[in-house]
Design brief:
Layout (H helix, E strand, L loop, with lengths): L2 H11 L6 E6 L10 H16 L3 E8 L3 E8 L5 H22 L23 E4 L3 H17 L14 H6 L13
Antiparallel strand pairs: 1-3, 1-4, 2-3
Helix pairs in contact: 2-3
Length: 180
């Protein structure tokens, strides 16, 4: 299918709010997500959002210190509210594990409204309103682990949607192909 056909399909599918490319970074770029049990917190939160029919997830990657998603709010839900809820929920789960691992102090901050901070405040959203931009962001997500030297091929990295797009395998049961 050529890029014009994809864009027409996208226009039909996304008549309301467009999908967004979302990036959230761990405070000070620390490697909190290096261990799989911390990555699992992200996966579980995404599973919940998909199962509760709050989002459609088109692409993702979980790196050691940041995440990228291509997602879209469903129905009348507001993606900013979902994003804030996701960040708050995952922060609470990180805190629980960090207490168990006796590593909570490394995320201490001296703020009026909190004692610890896990996510940087400057998460990024980019509206994906053309097929070219959508595909560029999806490729960027999938090649992130390759550029970081974590794997040779995008589909070899387990915490990504690359295998889903390459072979149709969705180990986490959270993906929807952007072409339906």
């Amino acid at each position: 299918m050529d890029k014009n056909s994809i864009f027409i399909l996208m226009e039909q599918s996304y008549a309301g709010e467009w999908p967004q490319f979302f990036t959230a970074t761990i405070q000070d770029w620390k490697g909190l997500l290096k261990e799989d049990k911390y990555k699992q917190i992200i996966i579980d939160a995404l599973k919940f959002l998909v199962a509760e029919n709050k989002i459609t997830l088109y692409g993702f990657v979980i790196m050691e210190n940041h995440v990228h998603f291509i997602w879209q709010a469903k129905g009348s839900l507001v993606l900013q509210d979902i994003q804030n809820s996701f960040l708050k929920h995952t922060a609470k789960q990180f805190k629980k594990l960090l207490i168990e691992d006796d590593k909570l102090d490394s995320y201490a901050v001296h703020k009026i409204d909190r004692k610890h901070n896990f996510w940087q405040r400057d998460s990024m959203n980019v509206e994906l309103f053309t097929a070219a931009v959508f595909q560029q962001k999806l490729n960027y997500i999938h090649y992130n682990p390759v550029r970081a030297g974590m794997c040779s091929l995008p589909e070899d990295y387990p915490y990504s949607s690359a295998l889903f797009y390459d072979k149709g395998i969705d180990h986490f049961g959270i993906m929807e192909h952007y072409m339906g």
